Amino acid sequence: GTVLWRREDNHSGNLLAMSVHPDGNFFATAGQDGIVLLWNIQEGEVYARIDLGERWIEHISWSLDGEWLAISSLRDIYVFDAFGKELWRTDSHPSTVSAIAWSSAGDLAAACYGTVFFYDVSAHKLKQKLEWKGSLVSMVLSPDGDIVACGSQDNSVHFWRRSTAEDSMMSGYSGKPSNLAFDRSGILLATGGSKSVTVWSFADGGPEGTSPGFLELHSEPISSLAFSPRGMRLASGARDGSVVVWGVKKNGEGDAIGAVLMKGLISAIAWRPDGRVLATATANGGIAAWGIGN
Questions:
Q1: Do residues 128 and 146 lie in contact, with contact meaning Cβ atoms separated by under 8 Å?
Q2: What distance in Å separates the CA atoms of residue 16 and residue 56, rounded to the nearest whole number?
């Protein structure tokens, strides 16, 4: 891809999270300094900042309608509007929040030790809990909001269906799957946990009883994953600073179609909704936007 702009040193301490606004014009970054920066994606300029004090911010996520920005720090989740005004915060969770995500219906999900919580943000109340005895380290929701996938400390991926509360598990990873991403159809689930990306297919009753595809090019473990909102492209970032864009097939196999190298562990990757710009962030505070061709 062609680099559109780069920025350095906007955060003090490690940069841990990034999320692109659904309209594609803005994005947010956050990290150990307790600051959330709201950026214009075209020029790479900051237009607002949110200061939570000396609290590490591990996760941020825009709601699908772009009205709300969820921010997690330790056991707490804050909800702000697009201009940086705080609207609500949840009660403290029983353990550190390890992941947050918005469902297609507008529910806010939060993963903690042993539980995924679903909140109705507009009503300021808890809506549903899914429980499993284990430490959940990552989470993603399918586009229709029914499938909840969580990476676990025991080197497995745990699945629930919200509609039935049925659950299942895929194990055998060499490390904990700390990065997960669904494609826009909800058929493919990409997972990290090693140097390769493991891609499961939910087609034809999968992923149980099926073999995944493997995407291999990184020299160190995967640290970030994101499917393009358009088409079958997957971006993966790794601890070695490499970012690879893959063309993925419906069976989970694929080929690398582009790669770049940044200085430092890739801590976050996010696509603009049209799939033509990929934003990448490194743990040491480097941020870049890349133009991605057709």
A1: no
A2: 9
Cα dist. 166→130, 132, 155, 213, 281 in Å?
A: 10, 11, 20, 25, 36
**Dist CA 116 CA 74 (whole Å):** 15
| Nearest-angstrom CA–CA distance, 158 and 139 | 9
Do 213 and 204 contact (CB within 8 A), yes or no? no
pTM above 0.90, yes or no: yes
Nearest to 278 by CA among 248, 238, 240, 236: 236
Task: Quick: pLDDT tens for 11-46.
Answer: 988 999 999 999 999 999 999 999 999 999 989 999
At 39-69, the pLDDT tens digits run: 999 899 999 999 999 899 999 999 999 999 9
Q: Which CATH architecture has domain 2-291?
A: 7 Propeller (2.130)
